[in-house]
Design brief:
The complex is a heterodimer of chains A (183) and B (171). By secondary structure, chain A is of the alpha/beta class. Chain A has five helices and seven strands. The longest helix of chain B has 13 residues, at 128-140. The chains are: A alpha/beta (183), B mainly alpha (171).
């Protein structure tokens, strides 16, 4: 049994969990990671009984793609200060869908910055709330200042086909990036 | 030790910076002067915030010891397990499972089919880090099998991506 994952990122309330839920075969689950103030060299908690923890919740869904292949979709924790989790989350990921609400475009900048810097394939998915897309893809692309080859798709996170199309676009983009890199 | 880096706030509406982004009509653009990949300072650090993390909306304060009591206080798994690593109970040998902790018994019961580390954590309500430690221990002891892709050379290869694509198209 093989598993792969795609990360769904974007600002708080942009529709990440809706996106995951519209295509997942299970109701999205929530995993909680307990963050400690401990650094990586400390692995014995009995030494520090008075330290406190922060719990970060992450929603995810699952799609069975064939008899031996499962795709997991992970929503990133919404708050910026939990970025330190992303390194762990994106390790080995196919890529990321960065969801954008054009009314709050700036909320997506941190995610764009992150995936650009990490060299992870990503696409921009403009979530059209109520089916409205007040700005063209070109405007959004320029406002986000992303590289011209980064795909931008319009999507309705509630709609399974729309979500599916966004995922296909990301996988195709990841393949293009790999083929370009190996040429 | 540094905490997660605060983001440079982009200029607000009406004050577009001279940088790469052109604002949406009436909107904002991504701020100027972003250091690119070499900028280690731009990358979030894997190290959690300093000695006394401030707790926010998503944060919940509790004892550090409690969640890790079932691992004997260990936070580091015996080997690296990805969050999407698949886990299945090994075919049953004649083995007395009653000596296992309730958590390990729960994992064995849940993993009669292949399940991910993330699902174990979510469904059995244990923090991700705890699930990782327990599953790694159980794998070493031969109680479960673990399948994960070797990502040391990057993400999934083209063949696997082809399979993902074809699976998505058939949905």
């Amino acid at each position: 049994m093989t598993s792969v994952k795609i990360v769904v990122a974007g600002g708080f309330g942009v529709g990440k969990t809706t996106f995951v839920g519209s295509v997942s075969e299970i109701t999205p689950l929530t995993t909680e990671a307990v963050m400690t103030s401990a650094s990586t060299e400390m692995d014995d908690l009995s030494q520090v009984p008075d330290k406190t923890t922060t719990t970060v919740a992450m929603d995810f869904g699952r799609l069975t793609l064939d008899a031996g292949l499962i795709l997991y979709l992970f929503g990133t924790p919404g708050q910026h200060r939990f970025w330190f989790m992303w390194d762990d989350l994106i390790h080995g990921a196919i890529g990321a869908v960065v969801m954008v609400d054009t009314r709050r475009l700036a909320d997506s900048f941190p995610a764009v910055d992150y995936f650009e810097a990490a060299g992870i394939p990503f696409i921009i998915a403009i979530n059209g709330f109520y089916g409205e897309f007040p700005y063209g893809s070109k405007d959004v692309k320029e406002a986000l200042a992303v590289s011209p080859h980064v795909p931008i798709v319009r999507c309705d996170a509630r709609d399974r086909n729309s979500t599916k199309t966004a995922l296909i676009s990301l996988v195709e983009h990841a393949m293009t990036m790999q083929m370009t890199a190996t040429q | 030790m540094r905490g997660p880096r605060e983001v440079d706030r982009p200029p607000g509406p009406g004050s577009p910076g001279p940088g790469r982004g052109r604002p949406l009509p009436g909107g904002v653009s991504r701020g100027p002067g972003r250091p690119l990949p070499s900028g280690a300072q731009k990358l979030p650090t894997p190290i959690p915030p300093g000695p006394s993390p401030r707790l926010g909306v998503e944060g919940e304060k509790s004892s550090l010891v409690r969640p890790y009591a079932v691992t004997g206080g260990r936070t580091q798994p015996r080997y690296q397990l990805q969050i999407e690593a698949m886990v299945a109970a090994s075919s049953y040998e004649a083995r007395d499972l009653s000596v296992l902790s309730p958590e390990c018994q729960a994992i064995l019961g849940f993993c009669r089919d292949w399940r991910s580390v993330a699902e174990i954590s979510a469904v059995l309500r244990m923090p991700l880090g705890v699930a990782r430690v327990l599953v790694a221990d159980m794998a070493v002891e031969g109680l479960v099998r673990v399948n994960q892709i070797d990502h040391s050379h990057g993400g999934p290869d083209l063949n696997l991506l082809e399979r993902v694509l074809s699976g998505l198209r058939k949905l």
